Amino acid sequence: MHPNPAFRNDDRALHEALVEEIGFGMIFAATPDGPRVAHTPLLSTGDGAVQFHLARGNALTRAIESATALIVVNGPDGYVSPRWYADPAQVPTWNYVALELEGRVRRMEREGLRALLEALSARHEARLTDGAPWTMDKMPEAALSQMMDAIVGFEMEVLAWRPTFKLSQNKAPEERERVAAGLEAEGSPAIAQLMRRLVP
């Protein structure tokens, strides 16, 4: 989390929406062999927990159960050039959105893992527009069972939400608009849109 309090955001609904919209993150935890990270789809339960799954052979899978872990979700980001400011006393920086979630992890039962996989595929299939959505019942049960044997489902009870919404809040409105326009022109429209929507 960025140390400048101007870049913090206490809107829990927005944090949940970020997890929902991005749908992917990194899980960090300590293992007997040192710190490890895994990349995985995420599902917010809407009541303060986040679910995910890892390959059974992943080093984190053996160490994470009942441990405290950290999930990081990265939102839009973009390089900010000093050329976009009227004030010449500026340096390059980066605007970005990131959310850190810290909490205790528990292993899910097989039924919970299946429900997680069904929810994840339904959510992401719904975003596609080219035909009928894929559903798990289209897969032979034996093949699905074999694939499920290769992964483990987990749920984190989130005890700390640490967001950073670095959107040039420390700049004057006219400077922010120049930065947003620069980001948009250089191919980072998502971070520009958040700057305009979330900063008064």
From TrEMBL:
Signal peptide start and end residues: none
UniProt-listed Pfam families: FMN_bind_2
Residues in coiled coil: none
Top-level division of the source organism's lineage: Bacteria
Protein name (database record): FMN-binding negative transcriptional regulator
Native organism taxonomy: Bacteria, Pseudomonadati, Pseudomonadota, Alphaproteobacteria, Sphingomonadales
